[in-house]
């Protein structure tokens, strides 16, 4: 028995060592690649072929192009500092466990001040004293404790008490001990504003958000990721826009928090876009779109949202069909909801005067389970919303034609009940740039 135990311990140590070594190699190779890229042209955004002025936060994409094109999209979403220490085992363990530098996160603690990244014209804006109330829904699974708590404490510190109805935390079956009794103990400081729901089984982000929304009582639902930090006067612009038009869905401008240093960086003014592989991209906003009296504070009409952070009238969220509850785990729900908003009478905007920092994690979501879930989810979108244009997707990924996507009759009926427009209308009126991508393979 003792020999078996010793062998198990040795095997476990060997596996952990191999994983650490592989991560070190990957981080080092990525770092070298990034250093080489500094002498090259800045990256291009696919649709308008315009250069971004500075890095933009991005989410990992796993609905991939064919294998021959994979290399151009491969690699971590993180940009590592030049002096990053690839041999510090504690740092490496943090990346393996959480996807970012947990050592620095712990040093930062539960609250920090971040730079005000708003344009100075935003500082002159005034918002109504009477605004709708907000229920903020945050779902988490095995999140790093301090990153999660900075999300919560930044909201509590920078949100007017009278508009913050509640923060609803949905623990989607986390396994880490510090997310249980320790978290409950620290949340006592915010008693009266926090609701915590602990799922009995792993639901995935999409259904976890639906569980949180069902418990909300505020006028507006605000969905945030569990690893972000809100900035000054972040919520008032979102609530004001929705108060003026209940069918307006709004997103904050997403600043970037670096995964290796946790440095908070401002984002340029961008909008959400996607291509025929259904990959989300950040897209440049042309200067003439901000030439009006509001200048760089002008709300940006966005074809799609990134998915992690947005605000919507709570009743409108249910009227329009909430999330597709048959989607699995994570991915595709942002595109599906965005198309539904535009095609069914709503509007989707990004507000540059609302700023929220998002922590860019190194994330190995390219597991078989994740790939299957994202393909399944995106196929539900394709068959419900793309009409004849679904052939643009299948021409690039023929194998998807025979992939399962479940029963979509309920979502097809929802589209009829809402009297939604065609995808052709969406292309002509909301996102004509997607047509320009039509011939690219």
Automatic annotation (TrEMBL):
Domain Glycosyltransferase 2-like: 135-317
Gene Ontology cellular component list: Golgi apparatus
Keyword field contains Plastid: no
GO biological process terms held by the UniProt record: spermatid development
Keyword DNA damage on entry: no
Membrane topology: Single-pass type II membrane protein
Protein origin, superkingdom: Eukaryota
Intracellular or extracellular location(s): Endomembrane system
Cofactor annotation: Mn(2+)
Keywords on record: Disulfide bond, Glycoprotein, Manganese, Membrane, Signal-anchor, Transferase, Transmembrane, Transmembrane helix
Main localization (coarse): membrane
Pfam assignment, any one: Glycos_transf_2
GO MF entries: transferase activity
Family: Belongs to the glycosyltransferase 2 family. GalNAc-T subfamily.
Protein known as: Polypeptide N-acetylgalactosaminyltransferase like 5
Species the sequence originates in: Molossus molossus (Pallas' mastiff bat)
Organism classification: Eukaryota, Metazoa, Chordata, Craniata, Vertebrata
